[in-house]
């Protein structure tokens, strides 16, 4: 009886420990915050854009590296006339036709004086980017949202949407009249945590097999070394899904994402702490990949310690599992 009980406990512990896979390999420069990943169609080179260094550009021959920092996408900063226009955040990258569109946020920490900008290039190389400034997605004090953390969505009918938001009323969406501008339609809320500090941000919408999956980061992202939150309150990746790209997102239990719903995809585990700032990339070798930044507790948990992480997604249940 004792042996059977002990064995059951050990198996339970092993199941808990192995519930989430550790990040895939990374070599070269792996320190990164808010990564955005794409592969250049002309030669297969991987490009990684990230917060800092006026949107840092790194390249690699494979998702695992070795990653080499090449420089800044916008070395002069943004033409958007707001505080923070030389400290650009949370890039989002897309190829539309033969043009690459790089979205970024201009803001300062804790402020709603924010705007989403865009730059374009045909190669993504350092020195090739043209800044077009504001997309028209902006916020100011008193708005229900904060216009940072952009994510462009290109629909199968050729229409464009922009997901964005951080804290306040959390995650919102507006239709875009083109990849560089949005019209007069008001923003609609797509996710909201009514509890605590409303700590949801970094949305990324991904379509698969009839569903739009709304990935986002929940919890405290930054200042973890100086103000460490209670266990479980740090960054983690969550998801809801809907058959519509604009509304009706629910978690795996059926709870609305606008009412605090959200299925955990990737929380802290083992030496992985506070994973977030995520996106999804369909890699030609690995398949669907969740990429993100995280703190490796063996290295440190200050903002400058964030590491590039990625995991292959298992979709067999209809929900993303890593």
Protein described:
The protein is mainly beta. It contains 1 helix and 20 strands. Strands 9, 10, 11, 12 and 13 form a 5-stranded antiparallel sheet that branches. A 4-stranded antiparallel sheet has the order 1-2-3-4, with no helix packed on it. Strands 5-6-7-8 form a 4-stranded antiparallel sheet, with no helix packed on it. The longest helix is centred in the first third of the chain and has 16 residues.
Beta-strand content bin: 35-45%
Which structural class fits the helix and strand makeup? Answer: mainly beta
Overall geometric form: globular
N-to-C span: 35 Å
pLDDT < 50 stretches: 1-18
Helical segment tally? Answer: 1
What is the radius of gyration computed over CA atoms, rounded to a whole number of angstroms? 19 Å
Major β-sheet profile = 5 strands, antiparallel
Q: What proportion of the residues is helical, as a percent range?
A: under 10%
Provide mean pLDDT, rounded.
Answer: 94
Number of strands: 20
**Secondary-structure element sequence?**
HEEEEEEEEEEEEEEEEEEEE
Question: Any key phrases for this structure?
Answer:
globular; 41% strand; mainly beta; 5% helix; five-stranded antiparallel beta sheet; disordered N terminus; four-stranded antiparallel beta sheet; 322 residues; 1 helix
How is the secondary structure organized here?
Layout: H1 2-17, E1 36-39, E2 46-50, E3 56-60, E4 68-72, E5 89-96, E6 99-106, E7 114-121, E8 130-139, E9 151-154, E10 160-164, E11 171-178, E12 181-182, E13 188-191, E14 200-208, E15 211-218, E16 236-242, E17 263-266, E18 272-283, E19 287-296, E20 307-312
Antiparallel strand pairs: 1-2, 2-3, 3-4, 5-6, 6-7, 7-8, 9-10, 10-11, 11-12, 11-13, 14-15, 15-16, 16-17, 18-19, 19-20
């Amino acid at each position: 009886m004792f042996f059977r009980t002990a064995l059951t406990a050990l198996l339970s512990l092993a199941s808990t420990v192995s519930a989430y896979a550790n990040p895939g390999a990374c070599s070269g420069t792996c320190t990164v915050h808010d990564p955005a990943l794409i592969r250049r169609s002309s030669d297969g080179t991987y490009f990684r854009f990230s917060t800092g260094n006026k949107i840092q550009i790194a390249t690699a021959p494979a998702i695992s590296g070795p990653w080499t920092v090449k420089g800044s996408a916008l070395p002069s900063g943004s033409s958007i006339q707001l505080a923070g226009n030389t400290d650009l955040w949370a890039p989002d990258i897309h190829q539309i036709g033969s043009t690459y569109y790089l979205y970024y946020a201009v803001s300062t920490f804790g402020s709603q004086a924010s705007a989403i900008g865009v730059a374009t290039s045909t190669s993504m190389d350092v020195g090739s980017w043209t800044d077009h400034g504001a997309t028209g997605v902006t916020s100011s004090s008193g708005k229900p949202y904060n216009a940072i953390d952009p994510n462009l969505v290109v629909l199968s009918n050729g229409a464009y949407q922009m997901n964005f938001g951080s804290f306040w009323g959390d995650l919102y969406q507006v239709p875009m009249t083109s990849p560089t501008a949005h019209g007069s339609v008001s923003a609609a809320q797509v996710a909201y945590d009514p509890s605590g500090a409303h700590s949801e941000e970094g949305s990324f919408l991904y379509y698969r097999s009839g569903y739009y999956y709304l990935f986002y980061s929940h919890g405290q992202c930054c200042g973890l070394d100086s103000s460490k939150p209670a266990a479980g309150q740090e960054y983690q990746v969550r998801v809801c899904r809907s058959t519509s790209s604009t509304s009706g997102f629910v978690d795996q239990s059926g709870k609305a994402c606008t009412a605090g719903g959200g299925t955990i995809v990737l929380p802290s585990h083992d030496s992985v702490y506070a994973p977030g700032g995520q996106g999804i990339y369909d890699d030609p070798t690995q398949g669907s990949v969740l990429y993100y930044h995280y703190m490796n507790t063996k290295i440190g948990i200050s903002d400058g310690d964030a590491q590039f992480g990625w995991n292959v997604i298992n979709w067999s249940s209809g929900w993303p599992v890593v």
